Inverse folding.
């Protein structure tokens, strides 16, 4: 049977041509799909982080001005990128959940927040440990550091607000407003090193100019960033599965899913 | 290869405290997140396994048979 025939007779899980994008937008159909994807992303994360660390410590040369202290870059920059990227994804899903009233979108936002908060803290922590030997201080109130700290408070505020409201759907709506308003902070973080005179250095890697660092250093950093990305997907998918089960525990499909597993 | 020996590797050119302080805390946070998620999953699965369900798979209300 050809692909087209299968599609016409409904033997494919989705319709070719007009893909039914909404098939996986319900928690019930997304739950098993997410379960299948987690191991793939987890393995990818382990392999990429392993390769990235190897390049970072054993291939990339010592920095001419900073010595070995620069090796913090291999986790600092990926963590900082993830902290901003996850926030945008979280605000996107929260906003979509608010507009379309789709449960799964809001659950995705809820599942993303703790991982985003963790990467924000790690960006601040590793930045502090890098700042001490290079700038001579653990912390300064410059625009980059301050706006990143505000990002941490936005994540924590989102989580606290959602935790404080008993009705999950109302918690979703309140959280979505906070997440979307807070999204204005992301371009502020990103461009802070351009707009203000910061102690933090400008971007070493940007879309518009060639990177100002050695090729192996850049390679190690990008591979680590990919590894952190895969880690985030694996962790967030497994958290959204927990959220789905917690919120939908009363439904028939959860009962049938558990019955089928036994 | 950048390092002549393991002690040179751990010393990180005198920046060991900063470099390993960064990597260790990152590792601990990421590992803890994974462990917390496994615990959370186990606890919701345990809860769901204990809930009595009716014929349709819905959690039984009080008094329902």
């Amino acid at each position: 049977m050809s692909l087209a025939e299968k599609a016409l007779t409904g033997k494919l899980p989705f319709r070719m041509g007009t893909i039914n994008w909404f098939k996986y937008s319900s928690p019930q159909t997304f739950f098993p799909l997410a379960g299948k994807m987690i191991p793939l992303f987890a393995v990818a994360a382990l392999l990429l982080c392993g390769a990235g660390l190897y390049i970072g410590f054993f291939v990339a040369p010592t920095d001419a001005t900073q010595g070995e202290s620069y090796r913090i870059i291999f986790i600092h920059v990926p963590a900082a990128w993830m902290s901003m990227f996850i926030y945008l994804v979280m605000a996107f899903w929260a906003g979509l959940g608010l507009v379309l009233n789709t449960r799964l979108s809001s659950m995705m936002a809820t599942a993303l927040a703790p991982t985003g908060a963790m990467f924000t803290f790690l960006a601040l922590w590793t930045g502090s440990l890098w700042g001490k030997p290079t700038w001579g201080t653990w912390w300064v109130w410059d625009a980059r550091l301050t706006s990143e700290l505000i990002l941490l408070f936005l994540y924590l505020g989102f989580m606290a607000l959602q935790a404080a409201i008993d009705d999950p759907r109302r918690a979703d709506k309140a959280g979505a407003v906070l997440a979307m308003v807070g999204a204005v902070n992301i371009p502020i973080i990103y461009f802070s090193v351009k707009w203000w005179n910061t102690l933090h250095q400008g971007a070493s890697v940007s879309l518009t100019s060639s990177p100002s660092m050695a090729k192996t250093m850049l390679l190690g950093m990008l591979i680590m960033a990919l590894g952190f990305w895969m880690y985030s997907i694996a962790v967030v998918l497994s958290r959204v599965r927990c959220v789905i089960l917690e919120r939908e525990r009363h439904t028939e499909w959860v009962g049938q899913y558990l019955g089928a597993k036994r | 290869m950048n390092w002549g020996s393991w002690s040179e590797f751990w010393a990180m050119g005198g920046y060991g405290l900063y470099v390993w302080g960064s990597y260790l805390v990152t590792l601990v946070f990421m590992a803890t997140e994974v462990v917390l998620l496994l615990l959370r999953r186990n606890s919701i699965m345990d809860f769901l396994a204990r809930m009595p369900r009716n014929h349709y798979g819905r959690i039984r209300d009080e008094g329902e048979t």
Notes: The mean pLDDT of chain B is 87. The helical segments of chain B are 6-11, 16-50. Chain B touches chain A at residues 1-3, 9, 12-15, 17-19, 21-23, 25-26, 29-30, 33-34, 37, 40-41, 44-45, 47-49, 51, 53, 56-59 (CB under 8 Å). Chain B has two helices and no strands.
